[in-house]
């Protein structure tokens, strides 16, 4: 008993220590009080090309005007950004930002609920707006993140968050915008950590797929019963999946292998789901089909290693270019949390391997906005859209260029400081040893 | 001969032998009546192969009392002998299997302990490691086991070498006859050779958990045995030298040698280096992959024992099944049956074994498959007789047919290496029938006239009896066929002379071309018919030697993107490039670089092109030094951590380089030319590191960069105190950062005392040395002494400021400089202290938040260390990042404004300095190794792509060539898939689990017991960094 108490105390103490350290010092930006004109920048509009020496005016959180030599309203603040580049805020898909703080510390992980089928859990609920990680990701131009539960087979629902808020309610853009599924394995492997024979693996794969199909069948039965007006007790799981059947929620399928992707399309089509494929390493193998069906793809391996020994070293690097060539509707994601800050560079890497630079930018701005149903307000620099804007001294997609001077989310000026800049500042002041 | 028939015949065989037990009453009293049946036998008119290449036709073999009396052409039959007519028979020496587990009880799987076991149970003066059973002599556990012997006898084997095949040093094998007699009579050679493997088997002790740990254990044990021979009976500094049964048993290992099982051709070469060091003659149980490095295998000069467990083809029949099958597997499926022939033709002596075959009855079909793929009859026979006889130490009594040898032989109907079948196997003069010699071969065609019509009866014996009968215009299949030794019965539906229905028949051969058929009509009346008989013609050319043809390539390594050979060294002049020198010269525009004899010969503008030098137009290109990675875990086989004991400075990454690793090629494609392969971070004092150049295609030894001084991995913090290893792993010292300091300190103190003892011993007079035991050479402590002597340099995995300060203090206390802190994510907090000590830092560009000790990591770390005068580099610790260190270096430009050329230095000259190889590599300077990369773009940019990567003037990566290779890989794979599909069911024959297992992507923290996992029993696995 004594031992147990000791262990409990230790656990609580360490939890406290962590809780203290996860609240960052950056103050969320204030509501836009006056119009702001960014003058004489190079605007990467995403929808209307690159406009050089152009001004951008935004007020009340929205973009009001884009043009050369815009008249500056009387109460406006004018910021000269000559030589700098303006982009829409980057939108990161497939992240656990705000859910995970320190990977190896269990107390700080909130992305993986127990159970194979947990569609009822939603990412925004556990989103820690004070995560120390978030400001470090903003620093590289990421203004929005899709926050995704990641456990089991049916993981839960994702929510779109803006990355500057006092709490999750403040940060929430769209709650429960889609249901996420880790598609059952279709392949077999021959490694020492897989003890099952190929036959056993195939059997297990088939059983898992059957289990998933049963989930859809059960959810559909619930949906049908509800729609027919039957008075049945609530099942939170199937309640959460109702939106799949009336197209108010997307179905995000996380899958890499060609056979998984094909199965997901087939099953999804039989229900008429609004399908988005996530990860999709093998998307290039079925690019024509994806283009023909216009199935959105969130390509998740922009820095990926080849998944198979025989794949070319640059297979993952060059996949976005191949998808573009085939006319696939795709976004680029860099799944994770702290490393999401590398998403702009990942898009840049796709450019090195053949993707058009404008398309690369679109793949981390407008495409995610479209896929999550917020393209009417986010994802490009257009009049009427929200003023979620990044200003960089150079090319956002290249570490040799990227250097943010401003970030606005809904017109609010967002801090670009972070735990990292603060520690950097602190230790620059450390006296040399002799002092 | 079908297998079913063979085995059932074998079951009967016991009753058909002479019950001769020549020595039965030598020491064993006979209760009841004595058996004195004569055993003199003469076999006449046979074709006898007395040894490979020596055959006598019309020969007579005389045996008596279990031994051969004579073998002679037309030899006389001694009076009173039992005479056997051997007409049509071939007789061969009995086959010998030099690698078996016959008759020795094998080790049982233990109940695996949840908590780790660091020290073993000590009994009988055993070794301190439970995988060492060197003191065992397995003849002591041997007993005659007739049921187990059957599978060997069925394939013609008469004797075997056997042992308990468990652990690393397994004890001494024994050579025994398969005769059904007591062990006293069947043990041919009680003690043959030590057996071994790198697999710790059923040992539950933690150490070793990795291949490099196993190698280190073998090395230390052999060294200990040499020491023990001299030290036992003398006084050590802390008392008399202990009795150690295992070391004692290894005294004569230089004479007995070892039979050692290896997992693949790489481990064969690894083992051979260790055994060479100690002059231990080694014979390897081969893996079947020797063809992949034939030249090196040949160069070991070792004999092999080669299984014929050729793999079943991977399943490629489904439309997408090819996605799960690597080209390397398909290649091995095609090439494996050629392995024995290729070895034989390279002049490697080897024995064949049944070992590794799931189905023993596949032995002969596979031997014949090997013969179709280049193995000759003579080579095959030698591999079954004279060579294994020598390996098993019984070449004076078995493996040949000559006077005085044991009467161990095989009688085959016909030529066994063509279409012959084994009829009987004789062990010590005892005949074991596989097929009764009187067995009539019914196959053929029988004809006569019956009731005014011509009758034709066709009988086939393979794969089982079948046939049909035609009578005039009637025809019927034979049913209910039942073969006896001299008669075949069956039924058929016929209408003969009004008797319509099912007739019953019995067929008997009466002369060479005549037979009699008894026919019983539906009514029950019986008739007898005389038949003419024509036996089925056998195709004598069945196993005709044909040059095998392959659709697969054989490359180095033999995987997709392997090389046909090492790229040629070229003299080239790169014209008009932007040259990033990584020297004080900075970045030179429009500059030419001349490469000759593998070195940079000149750097300048408008250089003239010497004759014989190829020009490369570098216009618009950037040329940088090859990238150097201070911290890599690619190209490591079977465990990156010897994650058992806290101090493992004796293990060597250099022992386990995995030259097959495709990440070598992928990293070249990202411009990386050199990497320090580090032990993982499981232990405060980890294993020895190895610097390699990424010479894709070469063996591990050729990849080693010998000019690099020795180095070693240390580790601090969460990993070594097992913070994230799970609840079972909490008993190893240390569990705190305090204990990390003290155990390192104790290690160095122990090394100092050890060094002093060695010095003291050296000062002793010859007379004193006769009484004093020399200090036991200890590879673990030797490495620590090298560190203190600044002959080996420490690269310490570290994160937080406190532990960085601690380790520098320990180093200073023991008089050396800590070379490089690796990871060092809080280096920025103690940069001045590091600079003052002289330690360098090699860090991640931007990693953080993956565990608590990296919560203060910042991407400005490299800048802060650099600014405070710390020699700083950026490393990968990742298969992924090792391909794109250029943009990792660029992050210091992004996050803290480092000057770009300084950033490039962090992945070239700075790591070269940290590895102390900067006089050879790391910059573009005259005289240095021509290791360089051509980029199509500003090399630190997102948009840069390596176009060519060169090492010592050899082009190891070329993007254009890679495109061709990608296309070739696809084509070759499809061609092999076609071959598998065309082979149909034949492709499915073979071993199901006979391919090399894919190696994981190792990380610092990958900590698991490879050998336990290997046994599919239990593992501890942790990912991360």
Give structural attributes.
heterodimer; A: 435 residues; alpha/beta; TIM Barrel; eight-stranded mixed β-sheet; 31% helix; disordered N terminus; B: 1025 residues; nine-stranded antiparallel β-sheet; 46 strands; globular; disordered C terminus
Strand content of chain A: 15-25%
What is the β-strand count of chain B? 46
- Average pLDDT of chain A, rounded to a whole number, is 94
Supply Rg of chain A. 23 Å
Helical segment count of chain B:
26
CATH architecture descriptor name of the domain at 97-383 in chain B: Alpha-Beta Barrel
Number of helices of chain A: 12
Structural class by secondary-structure content of chain A = alpha/beta
Structure write-up:
The complex is a heterodimer of chains A (435) and B (1025). Chain A is an alpha/beta fold and 435 residues long. Chain A has a domain at 90-94 and 138-378: Metal-dependent hydrolases (TIM Barrel, Alpha-Beta Barrel), CATH 3.20.20. Helix content of chain A is 31%, strand content 22%. Chain A has twelve helices and 16 strands. Chain A has helices at residues 2-21, 133-138, 168-171, 198-227, 236-245, 258-271, 287-293, 315-326, 343-352, 357-362, 366-371, 419-428; strands spanning 36-44, 50-59, 62-67, 77-80, 85-88, 90-95, 142-147, 154-162, 172-182, 250-255, 275-279, 297-299, 330-332, 389-392, 404-409, 412-413. In chain A, the strands form two sheets. In chain A, strands 1, 2, 3, 4, 5, 14, 15 and 16 form an eight-stranded mixed β-sheet that branches. In chain A, strands 6-7-8-9-10-11-12-13 form an eight-stranded mixed β-sheet. In chain A, helix 4 (198-227) crosses helix 5 and helix 8 (315-326) crosses helix 9. The longest helix of chain A has 30 residues, at 198-227. With 1025 residues, chain B is of the alpha/beta class. Among the domains of chain B are: 97-383, Metal-dependent hydrolases (TIM Barrel); 444-534. In chain B, the strands form eight sheets. Chain B has a nine-stranded antiparallel β-sheet, with no helix packed on it. In chain B, strands 1, 2, 3, 4, 5, 18, 19 and 20 form an eight-stranded mixed β-sheet that branches. In chain B, strands 30, 31, 32, 33, 34, 44, 45 and 46 form an eight-stranded mixed β-sheet that branches. In chain B, strand 28 (514-520) and strand 29 form a beta hairpin. In chain B, helix 9 (327-335) crosses helix 25 and helix 16 crosses helix 18. The radius of gyration of chain B is 35 Å and the shape is globular. Residues 1-22 and 1014-1024 of chain B have low confidence and may be disordered. Chains A and B meet through helix 9 and helix 12 of A and helix 9, helix 14, helix 20, helix 22 and helix 25 of B.
């Amino acid at each position: 008993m004594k031992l147990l108490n000791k262990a409990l105390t230790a656990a609580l103490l360490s939890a406290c220590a962590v809780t203290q350290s996860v609240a960052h010092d950056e103050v969320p930006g204030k509501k836009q009080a006056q119009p702001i004109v960014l003058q004489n920048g190079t605007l990467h509009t995403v929808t209307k090309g690159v406009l050089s020496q152009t001004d951008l005016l935004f007020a009340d959180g929205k973009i009001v005007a884009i043009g050369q030599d815009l008249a500056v309203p009387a109460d406006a603040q004018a910021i000269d950004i000559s030589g700098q580049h303006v982009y829409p805020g980057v939108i990161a898909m497939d992240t656990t930002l705000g859910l995970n703080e320190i990977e190896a510390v269990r107390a700080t992980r909130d992305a993986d609920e127990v159970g194979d089928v947990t569609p009822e859990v939603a990412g925004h609920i556990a989103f820690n707006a004070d995560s120390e990680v978030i400001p470090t990701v903003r620093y590289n131009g990421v203004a929005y993140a899709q926050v995704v539960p990641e456990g089991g087979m049916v993981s839960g629902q994702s929510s779109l968050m803006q990355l500057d808020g006092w709490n999750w309610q403040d940060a929430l853009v769209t709650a429960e915008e889609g249901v996420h599924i880790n598609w059952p394995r279709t392949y077999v492997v021959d490694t020492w950590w897989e003890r099952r024979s190929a036959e056993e693996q195939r059997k297990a794969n088939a059983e898992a797929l059957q289990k998933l199909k049963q989930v859809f069948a059960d959810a559909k039965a619930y949906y049908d019963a509800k729609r027919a007006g039957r008075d049945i007790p609530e099942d939170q799981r199937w309640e959460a999946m109702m939106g799949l059947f009336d197209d108010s929620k997307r179905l995000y399928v996380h899958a890499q292998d060609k056979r998984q992707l094909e199965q997901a399309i087939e099953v999804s089509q039989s229900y008429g789901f609004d399908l988005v494929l996530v990860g999709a390493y093998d998307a290039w193998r079925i690019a024509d089909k994806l283009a023909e069906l216009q199935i959105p793809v969130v390509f998740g391996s922009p820095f990926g290693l080849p998944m198979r020994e025989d794949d070319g070293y640059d297979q993952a690097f060059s996949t976005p270019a191949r998808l573009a060539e085939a006319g696939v509707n795709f976004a680029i994601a860099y799944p994770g949390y702290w490393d999401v800050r590398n998403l702009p560079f990942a898009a840049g890497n796709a450019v090195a391997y053949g993707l058009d630079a404008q398309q690369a930018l679109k793949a981390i701005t407008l495409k995610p906005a479209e896929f999550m149903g917020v393209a009417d307000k986010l994802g490009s620099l257009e009049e009427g859209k929200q003023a979620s804007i990044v200003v960089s001294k150079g090319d956002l997609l290249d570490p040799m260029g990227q250097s943010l001077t401003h970030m606005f989310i809904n017109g609010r000026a967002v801090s670009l400081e972070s735990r990292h800049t603060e520690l950097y500042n602190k230790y620059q002041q450390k006296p040399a040893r002799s002092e | 001969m079908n297998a079913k028939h063979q085995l059932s015949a074998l079951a009967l065989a016991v009753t058909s032998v002479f019950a001769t037990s020549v020595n039965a009453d030598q020491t064993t009293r006979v209760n009841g009546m004595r058996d004195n049946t004569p055993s003199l036998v003469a076999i006449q008119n046979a074709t006898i192969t007395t040894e490979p290449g020596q055959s006598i036709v019309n020969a007579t073999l005389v045996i008596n009392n279990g031994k051969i009396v004579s073998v002679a052409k037309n030899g006389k039959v001694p009076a009173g002998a039992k005479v056997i007519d051997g007409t049509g028979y071939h007789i061969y020496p009995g086959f010998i299997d030099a690698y078996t587990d016959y008759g020795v009880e094998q080790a049982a799987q233990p109940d695996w302990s949840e908590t780790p076991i660091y020290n073993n149970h000590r009994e009988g003066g055993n070794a301190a490691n439970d995988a060492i059973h060197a003191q065992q002599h397995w003849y002591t556990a041997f007993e005659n086991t007739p049921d187990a012997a059957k599978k060997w006898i069925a394939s013609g084997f008469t004797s075997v070498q056997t042992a308990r095949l468990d652990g690393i040093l397994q004890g001494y094998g024994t050579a025994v006859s398969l005769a059904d007699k007591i062990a006293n009579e069947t043990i041919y050679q009680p003690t043959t050779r030590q057996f071994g493997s790198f697999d710790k088997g059923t040992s539950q002790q933690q150490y070793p958990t990795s291949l490099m740990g196993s190698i280190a254990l073998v090395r230390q044990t052999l060294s200990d045995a040499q020491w023990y021979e001299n030290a036992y009976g003398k006084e050590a500094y802390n008392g008399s030298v202990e009795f150690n049964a295992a070391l004692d048993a290894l005294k004569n290992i230089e004479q007995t040698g070892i039979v050692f099982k290896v997992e693949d051709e790489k481990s064969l070469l690894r083992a051979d280096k260790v055994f060479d060091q100690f002059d231990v003659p080694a014979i390897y149980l081969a893996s079947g992959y020797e063809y992949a490095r034939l030249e090196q295998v040949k160069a070991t000069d070792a004999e092999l024992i080669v299984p014929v467990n050729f793999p079943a083809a991977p399943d490629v029949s489904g439309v997408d099944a090819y996605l799960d099958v690597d080209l390397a597997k398909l290649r091995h499926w095609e090439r494996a049956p050629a392995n024995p022939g290729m070895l034989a033709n390279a002049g490697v002596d080897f024995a064949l074994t049944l070992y590794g075959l799931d189905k023993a009855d596949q032995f002969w079909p596979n031997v014949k498959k090997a013969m179709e793929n280049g193995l000759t009859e003579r080579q095959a026979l030698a591999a079954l007789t004279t060579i294994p006889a020598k390996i098993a130490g019984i070449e004076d009594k078995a493996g040949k047919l000559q006077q005085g040898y044991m009467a161990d032989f095989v009688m085959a109907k016909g030529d066994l290496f063509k279409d012959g079948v084994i009829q009987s196997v004789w062990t010590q003069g005892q005949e074991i029938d596989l097929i009764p010699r009187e067995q009539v071969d019914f196959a053929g065609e029988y004809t006569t006239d019956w009731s005014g019509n011509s009758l034709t009866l066709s009988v086939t014996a393979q794969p089982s009896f079948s046939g049909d009968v035609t009578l005039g215009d009637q025809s019927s299949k034979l049913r209910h066929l039942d073969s006896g030794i001299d008669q075949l019965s069956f039924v058929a539906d016929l209408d003969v002379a009004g008797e319509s229905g099912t007739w019953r028949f019995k067929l008997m051969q009466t002369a060479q071309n005549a037979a009699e058929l008894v026919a019983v009509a539906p009514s029950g009346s019986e008739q007898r018919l005389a038949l003419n008989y024509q036996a089925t013609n056998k195709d004598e050319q069945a196993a005709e030697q044909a040059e095998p043809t392959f659709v697969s390539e054989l490359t180095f390594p033999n995987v997709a993107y392997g090389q046909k050979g090492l790229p040629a060294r070229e003299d080239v002049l790169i014209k008009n490039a932007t040259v990033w020198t990584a020297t004080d010269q900075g970045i030179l525009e429009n500059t030419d670089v001349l490469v000759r004899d593998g070195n940079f010969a000149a750097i300048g503008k408008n250089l003239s092109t010497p004759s014989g030098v190829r020009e490369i137009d570098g216009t618009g290109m950037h040329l940088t030094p090859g990238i150097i990675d201070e911290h890599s875990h690619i190209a490591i086989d079977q465990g990156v951590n010897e994650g058992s004991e806290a101090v493992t400075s004796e293990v060597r990454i250099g022992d386990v380089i995995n030259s097959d690793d495709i990440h070598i090629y992928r990293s070249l494609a990202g411009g990386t030319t050199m990497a320090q392969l580090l032990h993982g971070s499981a232990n405060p004092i980890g294993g020895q590191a190895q610097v390699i150049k990424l010479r894709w295609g070469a063996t591990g030894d050729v990849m080693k960069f010998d000019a690099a001084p020795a180095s070693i991995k240390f580790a601090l913090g969460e990993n070594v105190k097992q913070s994230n290893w799970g609840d079972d792993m909490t008993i190893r010292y240390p569990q705190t950062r305090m204990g990390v300091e003290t155990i390192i300190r104790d290690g160095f103190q122990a090394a100092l005392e050890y060094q002093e003892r060695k010095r003291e011993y050296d000062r002793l007079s010859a007379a004193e040395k006769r009484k004093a035991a020399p200090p036991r050479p200890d590879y673990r402590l030797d490495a620590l002494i090298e560190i203190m002597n600044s002959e080996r340099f420490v690269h310490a995995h570290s994160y937080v400021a406190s532990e960085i300060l601690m380790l520098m203090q320990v180093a200073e206390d023991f008089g050396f400089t800590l070379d490089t802190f690796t990871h060092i994510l809080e280096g920025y907090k103690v940069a001045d202290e590091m600079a003052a000590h002289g330690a360098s830092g090699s860090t991640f560009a931007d990693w953080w938040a993956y565990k608590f000790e990296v919560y203060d990591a910042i991407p400005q770390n490299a800048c802060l260390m650099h600014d405070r005068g710390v020699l700083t580099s950026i490393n990968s610790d990742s298969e992924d990042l090792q391909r794109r260190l250029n943009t990792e270096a660029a992050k210091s430009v992004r996050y803290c404004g480092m000057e770009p050329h300084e950033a490039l230095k962090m992945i070239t000259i700075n790591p070269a300095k940290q590895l102390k190889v900067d006089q050879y590599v790391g910059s573009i300077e005259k005289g240095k190794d021509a290791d360089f990369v051509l980029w199509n773009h500003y090399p630190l940019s997102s948009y840069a792509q390596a176009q060519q990567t060169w090492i010592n003037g050899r082009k190891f990566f070329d993007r254009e060539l890679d495109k061709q290779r990608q296309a070739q890989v696809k084509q070759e794979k499809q061609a092999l898939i076609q071959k598998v599909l065309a082979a149909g069911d034949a492709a499915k024959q073979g071993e199901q689990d006979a391919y090399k297992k894919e190696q994981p992507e190792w990380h610092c923290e990958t900590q698991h017991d490879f050998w336990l996992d290997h046994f599919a029993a239990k593992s501890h696995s942790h990912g991360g960094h």
